[in-house]
Amino acid sequence: MDLSALSRQLPEILSRKKQKVSRIFTVEELDLKFSNSTRMTYERIAGGNGAVMAIPFDGSFFYLTSEYACGFERYELGFVKGKIDDGEDPVNACIREMKEEIGFGAKNIIPLKKEMTLAPGMLMLRMHTFLCTDLYESRLDGDEPEPISIIKVSIKEAKDLIFDYDSPLTESRAIASLTLALHKLNAI
């Protein structure tokens, strides 16, 4: 596989401006000059320290969540996820988020992918994903507006969620992470 195209000369950043800052997002405008002298203005949503996604598995069942998703104004099937706080590493963020969102910790945290991105052309977000096993009950207070429901699914049901055309699991990061977790468990 020839990946030399990933090593091309990066565009020169001529200027960088914060256009809008909200409680959650910062929209930046970057004026760029490419190696062929083409100039373009790009916008991106700047990120903080990154985020984590936990794929809890108790040996028989994956623990998915049902949480309100404002972007689509509906409840979505997914996994524990959240931002990495200042001074926190991804593993500790994963453990904290599990305890806050579903009331479980994990003794075994297995990285699934060094990082995942979502819409990298406009979002500056790094997601670290982990398979979490040897679960134990442990709850921390979180910032959720309502309790998050846990939906337990077997390995077979997890495969159906990934591969069925009309599956209720639609978030790409959750689909990719569940697939990686099944692969790590030698289930696919």
UniProtKB/TrEMBL annotation:
Checking InterPro entries in the record gives: NUDIX_hydrolase-like_dom_sf, NUDIX_hydrolase_CS, NUDIX_hydrolase_dom
Q: Does Hydrolase show up as a keyword for this record?
A: yes
Q: Which cofactor does it need?
A: Mg(2+)
Q: Which Pfam families match?
A: NUDIX
> Which GO terms fall under molecular function for this chain's record?
hydrolase activity
What are the protein's UniProt keywords? Answer: Hydrolase
* Keyword field contains Hydrolase: yes
Specify the Nudix hydrolase domain's residue ranges: 47-175
Protein name, please? ADP compounds hydrolase NudE
The gene that this protein is the product of is nudE
